[in-house]
């Protein structure tokens, strides 16, 4: 498998972050990939492409339900004056209604449906059914998967299209947008709960469960009550649905992947037996290993609390390592990120590929502290960049161009180092 071993590939928000393609006049042409990010359809398609795991963002609604959603807010309405309620200030029913894919019966029973439109009534005046001037304010039309649509619903495949807005990054330039645009995907899907994702995905697909927090860039320490609000809702769902699984030594060490030398120098001698483990378990009637799960977060306080509250799954610290500005040095400095992760008992650090590719000595520094390195970012769409990381010993790369990357690699979920058998190490 080469000196560094294989590098596992993960699907970023499933098939990738939704990006916008624009023509020469700056008009939006389409949203790519076709699958709405962070949805079950997107996760399932990524699994079909051959990734070893999917990365997704978990937030908790006002009524305590862990859901999959990246942004801190939900944007809808007029592009020049949109409404932007925070996810944590909305109930699950309100989120489903805003997405245009909520359950009609449930919304009606909750008082969110009137005259064919959803009216969102927030108890803390974040989003109200009536505007300040007394006029009625409604969210986008929506319905159940089986519900009917009206002529102006913008239906896709007989189902109502979402009326959400977004500041897209441009697919070609990778630059963030400056104005809100319609967030319409050819393959739309509802906002899923964490429980629904567990039930919908095959057990061989690993989960990178990123805990999203909404504290500002000027806040070094997140209030303990906010950390508790998130983890008290998320961890019970994971414990209940993850299935039988012995304690994991490492997230990437599946039955088809060789451990990296710096983590277990003697592992190479037992690699063949590890590869044969699933078949042997079936022959002996043993229960196979369950889903591989890891937790990650940009918030150091969340990572520490995850380690304190559970030891079943590894925790990785997510850091911008200088790519983003922040008051906390652990989010802006490579040495600070590695020092924190090692001292706090994290399994590794997930950092931007763009930063790592300019500081490749970071891999050796992490290895010296017995930390694994994973990367994310649009740079991971480039096969040469992936190969460089695989050769250096990066254990996993989260990619956005899932269809293109996996097709180029023959549908496998691992990138082999130099001298590797291209058919080995797939997950």
From TrEMBL:
Which InterPro entries does this one have? Answer: GDPD, GP_PDE_dom, PLC-like_Pdiesterase_TIM-brl
Q: Which Gene3D superfamilies match?
A: Phosphatidylinositol (PI) phosphodiesterase
**Record keywords:** Glycerol metabolism, Hydrolase
- One GO BP: glycerol metabolic process
Q: One matching Pfam family, short form? A: GDPD
Q: Where is this region: Disordered?
A: 129-160, 268-290
Quote the EC number.
Answer: 3.1.4.46
> Which GO MF terms does the UniProt record name?
glycerophosphodiester phosphodiesterase activity
- State where composition is biased (Low complexity): 268-287
Comp. bias regions, Polar residues = 134-151
Q: Which reaction does it catalyse?
A: a sn-glycero-3-phosphodiester + H2O = an alcohol + sn-glycerol 3-phosphate + H(+)
At the top level, the lineage of the source is Eukaryota
Domain (GP-PDE) ranges: 7-409
- What is this protein's record name? glycerophosphodiester phosphodiesterase
The scientific name of the source species is Chlamydomonas incerta
High-level lineage: Eukaryota, Viridiplantae, Chlorophyta, core chlorophytes, Chlorophyceae
